[in-house]
Design brief:
Blueprint lengths: L5 H14 L4 H17 L3 H17 L6 H19 L4 H16 L5 H14 L2
Length: 126
């Protein structure tokens, strides 16, 4: 991802998902990063679907891990969706931004996410 080699990133994320043996919740986090790679590889619909699959997995298995991690990962999904959808679907991007903000505002421990959402808010100011 750092080198913008999205096809290689997709392969690596898919391999990581296949080989990973930890919690289903954390695997959801992997899916949302895979979705970002698809999206940036111009497979936007597949990217969005994969991010939402990751979010659902995080939510469905939330009881496996500390709530803080669930908040980090689920807010991250919504932040990525807000960023990725902003150009093509501003309405849906704003909805994802609002969901991320609500999660972040609900947990005082999300210090880094609070800074991220503050920066992202600049893109959604009218």
């Amino acid at each position: 991802m750092l080198f913008k080699s999205y096809k290689e990133a997709i392969k690596q994320y898919e391999l990581a998902i296949e080989k990973y043996h930890g919690t289903n919740t954390e695997k959801g986090d992997y899916y949302y990063h895979l979705g970002e790679a698809f999206f940036k590889d111009n497979q936007k619909e597949k990217g969005k679907e994969t991010i939402l699959k990751g979010l659902k997995q995080i939510e469905d298995y939330a009881d496996e891990v500390d709530p803080f991690l669930v908040h980090v990962w689920s807010s991250g999904c919504h932040i990525y969706l807000a960023k990725l959808l902003k150009e093509d679907n501003p309405q849906e991007a704003k909805e994802s931004f609002d969901k991320a903000k609500a999660i972040i505002d609900s947990d005082d421990k999300l210090i880094i996410r609070k800074r991220q959402i503050k920066e992202l808010a600049k893109d959604f100011e009218q």
